[in-house]
Amino acid sequence: MDKDRVIGSAKVVKGKAKVAIGKTIGDAKLESEGEADKVEGKVQNAVGGIKDTIRDA
């Protein structure tokens, strides 16, 4: 498993936490940062998946 997949998954989890906390306290900026972290994590996870596929080929 590529390190990008691990880091990407961690960013998704961090983003979900930020979104939840932002909604709870009513902080729209924190919510949007969380959404951005989730997207960035998903992209990085996908890049790691591609690297794994190439490496396994």
From TrEMBL:
Record-linked Gene3D superfamilies: YjbJ
InterPro entries reported in the protein's UniProt record: CsbD (IPR008462), YjbJ_sf (IPR036629)
Domain CsbD-like: 4-56
Superkingdom as given in the UniProt entry: Bacteria
Pfam family, one: CsbD
Annotated family: Belongs to the UPF0337 (CsbD) family.
Protein's UniProt name: CsbD-like protein
Organism the protein comes from: Roseovarius gaetbuli
